[in-house]
């Protein structure tokens, strides 16, 4: 089994505005870091242009999505909190509004399965409505694969 992650963020300005420039300018570098990180399997790249910002998955064009697959909880955690990604993550208030509801979700997928945006949105919705379980969880719970989906 692999670990899927999906998170959303609401930008404080249009993605092509000067306010968002430093975030956008770091995206390619951070994505390249993820791509070569231990345990990385796959990441959502959007449409044919390899631009994840080109896909509007929610009602607002200001909601950006990020989805990836990792070999383990630990490999994703290390990338998010112990790599150069952490420095960008610490700056999120410069570019994104505080989300009033849960904005990220983790779940296990069979090796080789690539989740759709609809699947990811459903998992996030489940987490928001029912709380953490083996079906949809966050880093706080540290659910480990137990052989049941």
**Spatial order of the strands forming the largest sheet:** 2-3-1-4
Q: What is the arithmetic mean of pLDDT?
A: 90
Largest sheet: 4 strands, antiparallel
Uncertain segments are none
CATH class: Alpha Beta
Q: Number of folding domains?
A: 1
Structural class: alpha+beta
Number of helices: 4
End-to-end Cα distance: 10 Å
What do these coordinates show?
By secondary structure, the protein is of the alpha+beta class. It has one domain (2-130): 2-Layer Sandwich (Alpha-Beta Plaits). The chain has four helices and four strands. It has helices at residues 21-35, 73-82, 85-89, 117-130; strands spanning 2-10, 40-43, 63-70, 104-109. The radius of gyration is 15 Å and the shape is globular. 20% of the residues are buried.
Q: What brief labels describe this structure?
A:
Alpha-Beta Plaits; four-stranded antiparallel β-sheet; 149 residues; 4 strands; alpha+beta; 18% strand
Question: What would a concise description of this structure say?
Answer:
The protein has 149 residues and is an alpha+beta fold.
């Amino acid at each position: 089994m692999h670990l899927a992650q999906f998170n959303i963020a609401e930008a404080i300005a249009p993605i092509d505005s000067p306010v968002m420039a430093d975030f956008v300018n770091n995206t390619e570098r951070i994505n390249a870091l993820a791509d070569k990180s231990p345990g990385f399997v796959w990441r959502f790249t959007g449409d044919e242009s390899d631009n994840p910002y080109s896909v509007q998955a929610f009602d607002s064009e200001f909601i950006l999505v990020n989805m990836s697959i990792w070999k383990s909880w630990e490999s994703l955690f290390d990338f998010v909190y112990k790599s150069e990604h952490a420095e960008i993550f610490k700056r999120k208030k410069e570019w994104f509004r505080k989300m009033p509801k849960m904005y990220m979700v983790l779940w296990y997928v069979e090796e080789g399965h690539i989740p759709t945006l609809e699947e990811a949105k459903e998992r996030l919705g489940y987490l928001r409505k029912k709380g953490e379980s083996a079906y949809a969880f966050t880093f706080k719970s540290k659910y480990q694969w137990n052989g049941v989906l």
